[in-house]
Each structure stands twice: as C-alpha cells, then as structure tokens.
Amino acid sequence: MAVENLLPANFGYAIFTYMYSFFMLSYLGLQVGGARKKYGIKYPTMYSDKEPIFNCIQRAHQNTLEVYPQWLVFQTIAALEYPLVASVLGVIWVTSRFSYAWGYYTGDPAKRMYGVYGYIGLLGVILLSISVALKLLGVL
C-alpha cells in the first residue's frame, strides 16, 4: 500500500516540519560543540563552574531536547487529523526554539523568554491531539 493512501492529504507539510526541527536540533547541537571548543569544556562534563555562557548554550540545547519527544508525539497525532494547522503550529514551535536559544546565548537566562511564543505551537498541538482523542472515543 502506498504511503499517500495511508496518510492524510497535506501530511507532506508535517514531514517538512519534522525536517525543519531536525535542522534546528542540529544547529543547537553544533552551537554546544563550538562552545565546548571555545571554552575548553571536555566531554563528558555537562556544565562549567567557570564559564556561565557555556552553561547557557548547553541549557538552550538541553531544554529543547527535554521537551522534544513530547512535542513529536503531539505534533504527529495532531498532523494525522489536521496536517496543515499542525504544521503551522509546529513551525511556530520550532522557530521559537531558535529565539529561545539566541536569547539564552546572550548569557542572560531571562532573555530565553524571547522564545515564549513557542507555547502557542506546543499548546496548539496538544489541544489538537485532545480533539483527535475525543473523536476516536466518539465524544466529538
């Protein structure tokens, strides 16, 4: 059976959203690698007692990794029923992680809030996932 017969029309937008998230995670990871080299932080050390900027760069990546699995699940559930809306919400969330990181990279952790708009994307796909669950249960 062909994949286009299994997935809804417009699911390709969701696939591109996943690809965008891959590039975002790669970018954040490369920033950590560059900071390790710049500040002399060797593996497996996660944080530095002497370089707070490194810690901010590391936390921006680590925090994104902490929420990423949940976002993937809700993004996928939402995209199976609402592919276009879920993709827009996904792009909002992924883009916000860049803003979050760039704010954090200043060394002022409060500036990570530049990415707070990402909650629109995250909460949006959570709400869409609830809608899908209710439809499957016959409530909607």
Automatic annotation (TrEMBL):
GO terms for MF: glutathione peroxidase activity; glutathione transferase activity; leukotriene-C4 synthase activity
EC number: 4.4.1.20
CC terms in the record's Gene Ontology section: endoplasmic reticulum; mitochondrial outer membrane; nuclear envelope
Subcellular location field: Mitochondrion outer membrane
Main location: mitochondrion
Transmembrane helix found in the keyword field: yes
Family: Belongs to the MAPEG family.
PANTHER family from the UniProt entry: MICROSOMAL GLUTATHIONE S-TRANSFERASE, MICROSOMAL GLUTATHIONE S-TRANSFERASE 3B
Protein's name according to its UniProt entry: Glutathione S-transferase 3, mitochondrial
Organism: Culter alburnus (Topmouth culter)
